[in-house]
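I had to read the description of the data format several times before I understood it. In essence, backbone conformation is discretised, so a fold becomes a row of integers matching the chain in length. I therefore recommend that a typical entry be quoted early in the introduction. For illustration, here is how one protein appears when written out as sequence plus structure tokens.

***
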Amino acid sequence: MSSSISCDAATARPPVTRRRARLLAVALWLAPGAAIACPKCYGSSSPGVLESYYLSTLMLTLLPFAVVGTIVVLGFRFKRRFSVGPAEPVEPATRLPTRS
């Protein structure tokens, strides 16, 4: 028995219907309205809210620099702690013959 349809069940997708496309379009259209209605973002009217947003943004912006700086400082400390002092110059035992 041979089947004329060769479709793998793992890769098969249901067809996109017009109803699903409309629902997706309406959901995407209404999504910004839900963000604006967020009481934590726009509905709060206390005077320190804007300052809180600025400080949290500043903290999140400077955090990667602090992490990288900490890694660099720890690297220098590690290098200084476990480094061997400078080697003393060694005189050669024999001199190479020179052409005259």
